[in-house]
Every structure is written in C-alpha cells, then in structure tokens.
Design a protein that fits this description.
The protein contains 1 helix and 2 strands; from the N terminus they run H-E-E. By secondary structure, it is an alpha+beta fold. It starts with a helix and ends with a strand.
Length: 67
Amino acid sequence: MRIFIAFIAAFFVFSFAAYSQTVPQGMKYQAVARDVQGAVLSGQSIELRISLKGEDKTVHYTEVHKV
C-alpha cells in the first residue's frame, strides 16, 4: 500500500512539474489606448509590445499586437 501511495504522489508531482514548463500561447487582457491629453485613440493603428522581465532585467517573454 505504501508503494502505491508513493507512486500516486510521484505521479502528481511529476505531472505538475511537466505542466508548469509549458510555454504560454498569449496573455488575455483589455486596454484602452489614449494620447497624451487622455483622448481615446479609436480608429488608429497602434502596436503594443508586452515584455515580462526578471529581476536581472532579462526578458523572459515578449508578445507584440498590432491593432
């Protein structure tokens, strides 16, 4: 019985470890683009670049959206 419980525990640990190593396919968010005066930039083309950086300023993930 101990071997079975140890096997199940190891299975879950390795499953979570394997799942946490997957690369994200994008982030979900909502935003409103505004100019310097605060007016909404509707009907204009903009490019949004989002980067996730570590403490040492290394970029770990970047995505670009052209709207």
